Amino acid sequence: MSRQTANPAMDVLLRTLDIERLETRLFRGESPQVGWQRVFGGQVIGQALVAATRTVEENRFVHSLHAYFVRPGDPSVPIIYDVENIRDGGSFATRRVVAIQHGKPIYFMTASFQDDEDGFEHQTVMPDVPPPEKLIGEAELKEQFMAAAPPHIRAYWERPRPIELRPVSLKHYLSSEKLDPHQNIWVRTTGPVPADRHLQAAVLAYLSDMTLLDTSLFAHGTSVLDRSLQVASLDHAMWFHRPPVLDDWLLYSQDSPSAFGARGMTRGAIYTRSGTLIASVAQEGLIRKKATA
Q1: Catalytic positions, please?
Q2: pLDDT (0 to 100) of residue 2
């Protein structure tokens, strides 16, 4: 059920994902100027996926991607995406993408595409959580809690965004208690996304990078908004099980099985409101205490 109206932040995301083709397998992407000191990882994942997709036959769809972030992205300059054609098989295609800034790789990704096929089907059951309508919305969150929040936390929540987040529990944001490292968050786009399966996969990849590292910090009574921490995505893997659906809320269920060696690992499962599992995600990130000396 589509219930969305146009939203400027969503329009910016769609323009950001519509990267420019420079050559057959060479593309250029821009970053929105929103005051961030580095490029959001989900943007690079989404743009790289669009670049790879545009070199593959139209009827082949991404089913998995595996990526590493090797340098922080600079939002003030374009990102060049160089796509290598690894293989075009009878039903699968493989691409490797390197994202380049200032003459150096900042990110690389391998993605695999497949023709639609019939086969065995099963999936895990979606967690039983309250629907998004019964949870506090972002507007209410800002009104009730943000007035007393530190300036950097207010700035994070008050910035217009293409993705709305509605956590099932806000306890993590309101206390320093050490909690079980799992969370459920309802997410949705703040404006309509064209009914293009390739583009919808790129938007889903974009939002898949949101909130994951935070989950790995639950057990330690802190969050990615803690300025004493150095936090950054190191790698990202995603599997697209079924066609993306972005016209309603999605449940992003996450758990962190381990943190060790200044790294935290989180797994995620993305479900439609009706309980269909459309994607799985895994990410490891840097979670390091900054030197105080």
Answers
A1: 209, 233, 283
A2: 47
> Is the residue at 109 inside a domain?
yes
So what's the pLDDT on residue 1? 44
Buried b (16+ CB within 10 A) or exposed e, 107-145: bbbbbbbeeeeeeeeeeeebeebeebeebeeeeebeeeb
Residue whose pair of structure tokens reads 């993306």 in the numeric block: 244
User: Is 121 part of any domain?
Assistant: no
Q: Examine residue 108 and state whether it is found in any structural domain, yes or no.
A: yes
Residue 63: which CATH number? Answer: 2.40.160.210
Range of the domain at 99: 8-116+136-289
Q: What is the pLDDT of residues 64-114, one digit of tens each?
A: 999 999 999 999 999 999 999 999 999 999 999 999 999 999 999 999 999
Per-residue CA distances from 174 to 149, 221, 222 (Å): 10, 10, 10
Question: Which tokens in the block code for residue 210?
Answer: 């949101």
Structure tokens given for 218? 């639950």
Domain count, the chain: 1
Locate tokens 């390739």: which residue? 198
| Residue in the structure block whose two tokens are 């060696």 | 261
Given this model, what pLDDT does residue 22 score? 98
Put simply, whether the predicted model's pTM sits higher than 0.85 gets the answer: yes
Residue 247: exposure state from Cβ atoms within 10 A (0-12, 13-18, ≥19): middle
Q: What is the 8-class DSSP label of residue 290?
A: P
C-beta of residue 215 within 8 angstroms of C-beta of residue 172: no
**Spans of the chain below 50 pLDDT:** 1-2, 293
Residue 174: inside a domain: yes
